[in-house]
Amino acid sequence: MAERGLRGALRRARAIAESPWIRVLLAVTSLLAASLLLWPETKAQRLVTWEDLVHPLAPGAVVARGYHLSPPRRGEEQDVVFTARREAGPDGPGGRIELHVVDRGRWPGVRETKSFGVAYETPRSQAPIEDLEAVTQALRDAIDRNDTGLGSPSSIPLAAEPEPPLVARVLARLVGVRALVVPALLAVAMGLLGSLPRGDAIVAAALFGLGLVLRIVHLDLPFVHDQDVQRLFTGALPMGEILTGKGLEDRHPPLWFVVLHAAGTFGGSEAVMRAPAAIAGALLSPAIVWGARLVRGRAGALGAIAALVVTVSPELVARSREVSEIPLFGLLVVVTCALAARLAKGPSRAARLGLAVSTALLAWTYYLAPLVIAGVLLGFVAARKPLWRVAHPIGVGAALGAPAFILLGMTIVRDHGAREVAARFPELAWGDSAPGGMLGYVIEEVVKCVGPGVIYLGIGTTLFGFLVPRCAGALVPAGALLVAMIGVSYASGFARVQPYYIAAVAPVLALAVALAPEERVPAWLWSILGVVAVSTFFILPRPRPHRAYLPDVDACMPRFAAIAAGRSEKRIVTVAHYDATLLAYYLQRSANAPAEWPRTEVSGEFVLGDAGRRILPLVQVHRMDETSDEAARDTLLAAFAEGPTLVIERDAFVLAPVHDVLARCEVLIEAPTARLVACGGEAR
Fold first, then answer.
1. What residues does 117 pair with on adjacent strands?
2. Does this entry carry the keyword DNA repair (predicted)?
3. SS3 323
4. Long-range contacts (CB closer than 8 Å, 24 or more residues apart) made by 597-604
5. What is the number of H-type helices and E-type strands within the chain?
6. Which residues pair with 646 in a beta bridge?
7. Which residue(s) pair with 489 in the sheet?
8. CB 51 within 8 A of CB 58
9. What is the pLDDT of residue 4?
């Protein structure tokens, strides 16, 4: 009797647990709990700022050995950065020292206070060792006098720092225990919703809404990188130029510029031009849910949890807030792999047509397309599926994309000179790395995109895909990512590639998890592992997710352009060529002129508008050689001889001969990482 009663109780408990209303109640409870944990507290009065902590070393004051301290700024790794500069004079030659303040114990062997570690960063500092040591010790001593035992550097405000927006204050609370509990609650909620009878549609809509909110708020932040403006300018060209002229000179296929051209009908602001990438990024999660449903018939709890990863990934959110084709390409990769995995199950006319179209669009969107296509075919071979099922649609798509592949070959040839420059100057943006070293960086980028838990789970699903007979669901997307990782690593030897390119393919690993084989491991166990993987996502040492909604410290060009627009100087010199593009954009905006490529003279000088304002870049970074610094100085002096000139110099690109000349000019404004100076026609 007791055993029979126990069985009955278990059946009733199971029936309650399987009730859709109970699952909805539990999901809503989880979401409410996560919201309460994230909701920011009432703003407390600021008791101490970084300016207070370094007192009496106020910004502009001498730290030691004639070095003047700059205002503090936020660093990339939850740290705070000070810059100390010295012009050549009685105290010695000119120099620059970059000082970082981090959590105590984070960097071993550095000077420490009660709460912090203080150290200089060698690659970004140019000063004698005795100056480095003296300035670092002076800053450490100043902080130590005011350090009463405080929190993380990221928790201490800057005096001039505005109140962060609500979304930033919410995400800033993802620290400590909350960084584990909140993602787990979200994953549980999505899993419960995904298990409902119409859960796939509910989850897809919910994740699209969440992904859109995370990506579109505060899109009007100033541009930091010149490639954003370059894409904007190219997208503003006439459609014929995009498809047959100047648009083909870019390092990327022209489809994204067509998208930007369409977006440009709504204006040329930062928010408008970032919007297409933000929308494409928000569609990644619904695409994963759709792909899992297409292959299995239902995405379910595991598909919902896997899709959640790409919705909340700080790295993928940041990539979706750029004027970049990466989110669109990631969306196409997910669709392509899902269609191929569907064809692995059996014939489908719609899937064949879709695969042909998606393959062609891959080729016209990003130059990683050949690697993705090869990875899909590798996944088919690993799953022991007949290649003829996908060979025809992929072949048709590749034929339609053949012109884009020709452009890829031309780009590699054009990049040859840039690769030689990178070998001579490895500190340049695209660097110079052997395939083994580049592969390590690529793996780090994948970890940033999806987290270590999802990587381990993806490896597990792939291994089980080998064990389960004729299971291609996880093997096809895993093959696409693996081949792309290896390809990017080896391409670094002959093409200008960077590790972050892999962010365009990394989301497909979430699809591999969503398609985990359930023959050997039950779905509920995969789902539990998925919750664990998501819960560990935000505990890695990386820039906090709230940083995507705050102005970048390098976004100084709008201020520089506003000052330049109000002055009489007609010529503006930028030491590095990439600043010329940014400056041209913001000068056009300040004049209410259309944002488009300026007229360019043979010398590479931009000419803006009827007023004849000119922008002269001194150095094309990808064409540098050992004499570039001296040649840049001569070009600068020739510009001075023609009349008063404004000059923009960045700390990350200091040429000693040029810097010595600019030391005699008037500083108009000094940002944390750059400065604008005015030089008279008599400067020598």
1. 102, 112
2. no
3. coil
4. 597/233, 597/234, 597/236, 597/237, 597/246, 604/577
5. 28, 14
6. 572, 678
7. none
8. yes
9. 57
Q: In whole angstroms, how large is the CA radius of gyration of the chain?
A: 27
Distance CA 281, CA 211 (A): 7
Nearest CA among 18, 27, 518 for reference residue 302: 518
| pTM of full prediction above 0.85 | yes
Helix (H, G, I), strand (E, B) or coil at 253: coil
What is the SS3 string spanning 502-567? HHHCCCHHHHHHHCCCCCCCCHHHHHHHHHHHHHCHHHCCCCCHHHHHCCCCCCCHHHHHHHHHCC
Distance CA 666, CA 676 (A): 9
Distance of CA 1 to CAs 7, 8, 132, Å? 10, 11, 82
How far apart CA 359 and CA 374 sit, in angstroms, is 11
Residue 201's H or E segment, with its range, is helix 199-216
80-86 vs 95-103, strand pairing mode: antiparallel
Q: What is the pLDDT of residue 683?
A: 42
Strands 674-679 vs 606-608: parallel, antiparallel or unpaired: unpaired
Of the candidates 339, 408, 332, 400, which has an alpha carbon nearest to the alpha carbon of residue 372? 332
**Consecutive H or E run containing 100:** strand 95-103
Nearest-angstrom CA–CA distance, 502 and 488: 7
**Nearest to residue 513, comparing CAs of 501, 525, 498, 502?**
525
CA distance 42 to 39: 9
Q: Which of 413, 415, 431, 417 is nearest to 625 (CA)?
A: 417
Q: Residue 149: what residue type?
A: G
CA-to-CA distance for 266 and 511, rounded, in angstroms? Answer: 34
Burial of 449 (0-12, 13-18, 19+ CB in 10 A): buried
If we measure between CA atoms, which residue out of 636, 682, 630, 638 comes closest to residue 655? 630
The per-residue pLDDT for 274 is 96
- Rounded to whole angstroms, the Cα distance separating 66 from 292 reads 63
Contact between 195 and 301 under an 8 Å Cβ cutoff? The reply is: yes
What span, in angstroms and rounded, lies between the C-alpha atoms of 677 and 155?
34
DSSP reduced 3-state for 615: strand
For the chain, list residues with pLDDT below 70.
Answer: 1-18, 42-47, 76, 161, 415-433, 469-470, 541-543, 610-611, 681-684
Residues 219, 444, 111: CA angle, nearest 5 degrees: 90
Contacts of 264 (CB under 8 A, 6+ apart): 232, 235, 236, 272, 273
Q: How far apart are CA 232 and CA 228, in angstroms?
A: 6
Report the alpha-carbon distance of residue 439 to residue 58 in Å, rounded: 44
User: What stretch of H or E contains 296?
Assistant: helix 284-296
Structure-token pair, residue 230: 């370059």
Q: Give the Cα-Cα-Cα angle 509, 512, 514 (nearest 5 degrees).
A: 115
Please tell me the predicted confidence (pLDDT) of residue 93: 82
**For residues 103 and 101, what is the distance between their CA atoms, to the nearest angstrom?**
7
Provide the token pair at 176: 């400590």
Q: What are residue 84's DSSP bridge partners?
A: 69, 97
The CA-based diameter of the chain, rounded to the nearest angstrom, is 106
Predicted pLDDT at 421:
64
Please, which residues have CB within 8 angstroms of residue 560's CB and are 6 or more apart in sequence? 583, 586, 648, 669, 671, 674, 676
The amino acid at 387: L
Q: Please tell me the distance from the alpha carbon of residue 467 to that of residue 193, in angstroms, as a whole number.
A: 30
Listed in sequence order, the residues at least 6 apart from 265 whose beta carbon sits closer than 8 Å to its beta carbon are: none
